[in-house]
Amino acid sequence: MSENENDQKKLEIGKILRKAREEKGYTLDDLQQVTKIQKRYLIAIEDENFDELPGDFYVRAFIKQYANMVGLDGNELLQKYDDQLPKTKTEEYSDHLAQAVETRASQRKTVSGSVDKVRNYMPTIIIACVIVLVLAAIWLTAIARNHRDSSTRIDNSSVSVSGESRKKASASSKKKNTKQSKSKAIKLQEAPNRNDTSVTYTADQLNADTSLHIETSDRSWMQVRANNNTLLNRTLNNNEKTDLKIGRDTTSLVITIGNARATKMKIGNQNIDFTGNGRYQNTRNVTINFGKNQSSSSTSSQSSSEPNNQSSSQASQSNNATRPSNANNARPQTNASRASSQPAR
């Protein structure tokens, strides 16, 4: 085959590859990105300037890869133009292959050496990992215990604070109750116009509602009036107890008792000694005046007690008047009896 024919075949390889690339619609930049072959090498292959490639070994490899990417059979193309392509089994190829083998061998030795080193240090690494895990477990346990202790302390402190607050609240409530009891304590002052059947007391104005407690040891008729309003009007049985609400606006409390000996009374926390420790067993009327209307109420009680005293005095006078008539009637009978008993002269 002449040299002209060889040149034509060479030119045909470049043309075939360029035509196939253009038919696929690839540019040299696209082909460079896909094959990772530099653009200048692709141009050299299409122009069949194989001397610009890095070596004879890469000529066939680049042509085959180029042909496969543009839809041609790379092996068939290499066989067809085998005579026009550089031979791969040259001294350069042998040297390159030997260098590649040595490089791979050295890499394998390096990898094997590193693996051996790792194997040698593996027990030490495992022991170190175990120690680290144990220390981490101890550390986490200590943190958990501290957290529990802190939560327990917080709970104890909250319990103590709540206990102290309860104590303070109870103490304050006791103080309030004491103040209230002191404020509700009623001091009764007996008026000087006391008699056998009635007694009058004076007291400060009520600052809160209170109660009247009545207790009987025998049957007793009771009537209780507050500001002329009847609160009770009935007979209490033996060992009966009753409580009546006395409003804070009460100015006059009038109690009528049927059986003073069998009756006990208490207003608020104050006992009412209306019988004077048993000296006035016939007490019937008990009057308690509160606040500003004490004087007027005491005056009205005095005026109300005076008719009772007058009626009692009148009753006693009438009883005394009947006694002489009986005596006068008795005397003539005595004289007549004497005259009848004497003999006639």
TrEMBL record:
Compositional bias ranges of the Basic residues kind: 173-185
Protein name: Helix-turn-helix domain-containing protein
Segments of skewed composition (Low complexity): 293-320
InterPro entries in UniProt: Bact_Cytoskel_RodZ (IPR050400), Cro/C1-type_HTH (IPR001387), Lambda_DNA-bd_dom_sf (IPR010982), RodZ-like_C (IPR025194)
GO molecular function: DNA binding
Top-level taxon in the UniProt lineage: Bacteria
Region (Disordered): 151-199, 289-345
Bias type Polar residues, positions: 321-345
Record-annotated membrane-spanning stretches: 121-144
Cytoskeleton protein RodZ-like C-terminal domain residues: 214-287
Keyword line: Membrane, Transmembrane, Transmembrane helix
